[in-house]
Amino acid sequence: MYNVKSMYADDFIDDSEILCSLEYAQNHKDDRALIESILEKAAQCRGLTHREASVLLACEDDELNEKMYALAKKLKQRIYGNRIVFFAPLYLSNYCINSCTYCPYHVKNKHIFRKKLTQDEVRAEVIALQDMGHKRLALEAGEDPVNNPLEYILECIDTIYSVKHKNGAIRRVNVNIAATTVENYKRLKNSGIGTYILFQETYNKKNYEELHPAGPKSDYCYHTEAMDRAQQGGIDDVGLGVLFGLSTYAYELCGLLMHAEHLEAVFGVGPHTISVPRLCPADDIDVDEFSNALPDKIWQKIVAIIRLAVPYTGMIVSTRESEANRRAALELGISQISGASSTSVGGYVTPEDAEHNTAQFDRSDTRTLDEVADWLIQMGYIPSFCTACYREGRTGDRFMPLAKSGAIQNCCQPNAIMTLKEYLVDYASPETQEHGNALIEKELLNIPNAKVRKITIENLKKIEDGMRDFRF
Ligand code: SF4
Ligand code: SF4
Fold this sequence. Notes:
Elements: H1 9-12, H2 15-27, H3 32-43, H4 50-58, H5 62-80, E1 83-93, H6 119-132, E2 136-141, H7 150-162, E3 172-176, H8 182-190, E4 196-197, H9 205-211, H10 220-224, H11 226-232, E5 238-241, H12 249-267, E6 273-275, H13 296-309, E7 314-317, H14 323-332, E8 336-338, H15 369-378, E9 382-384, H16 388-391, H17 396-405, H18 409-426, H19 430-444, H20 450-464
The chain binds iron/sulfur cluster (2 copies).
């Protein structure tokens, strides 16, 4: 029985509620008045229910769909301005005892090379990432209590924060590891992580159980209730995501939004981020075997609808997507992207070779960070390396009111400018420096508060003089 506040996955992601919502959406997809009223509600940044979002997804009217995209662009601009935050994944280990049929790290894949970074190798990877300019990481590791126990992850986090190479520093470590206990989430929180990210993969329980035939991850409810345990363990920034292509996209979008509603209803804090990965080719994985693969246009529409439905959430896209798709998604709602990612264990130091290939998926966007930064600048975006919020204690219910009211912009804009300046001085090519400095001059005028603008200008000078790590 559907109950948004229940602590049981089968209740807050109730299958019959999803099916009823999808049926309602099909029955109302031509209801112009209803769709316009949903768009009006979204325009006020009030968010949308899973049912309202499902109606938008079902809508086939070109004019209304164009209106939807235009509104998503407007909200994106209103909430996030033109800032795009950078992050990079860091793969620690591809040992895994799970059997996810869509992932090359599944336990039955006997020909993939298995690797786990030593602490020296972690240090080397972090130096390589710092030398590119990265400040924010997302840690990735398979689930394996023998090879990658929580103690190993915690040790890696300590190592990462301890590395200070030249002017480099990793200032925020987000973690994407398997569902675990409240006790372990407490330990993760105490290690200083930013966001805890866990992709649901699919909200369709039947599909989930088929796709995860063995291993601890095969327990759908334990996996789906992980974010509740993370919150109970004190992690108040959690990141949701599904792997689009595993089940029908309409079902997934509805489930994803029900999960966001559940977190909001129970903890008063919705998802800090939502990721929108899609199935893509990898070792031992043929995407053609999955019949729900979704086309670019639908994927972009989903990005736009999530932006309307959960306007305050950060939205993340990885290098799974091509440059062209990332460009479209940036306009429609994405606020964070990865750049120059390696999806291999140790791949920032040692480039992949066929024999030792540990990549989790093939990247579509293989440009360098400098190329991606310059690309953003040339499109008028501010590449931001900001990590200020959690370091200033702005997490969970302290962060959400600022995000919802838009007040966070008073911090994001100057922080984006100052962290971009650091990047330009320390890592950028001469061309990117020239474009970036011109952008900074322009963007300083968009800091509304005169006092904040003055401090930012003073800090820019200090950054040129060698000082680092200013933040609001
Ligand atoms: Fe292991 Fe995660 Fe891959 Fe599943 S998706 S096989 S849990 S690494
Ligand atoms: Fe993100 Fe906070 Fe920085 Fe804004 S100020 S970019 S919300 S970390």
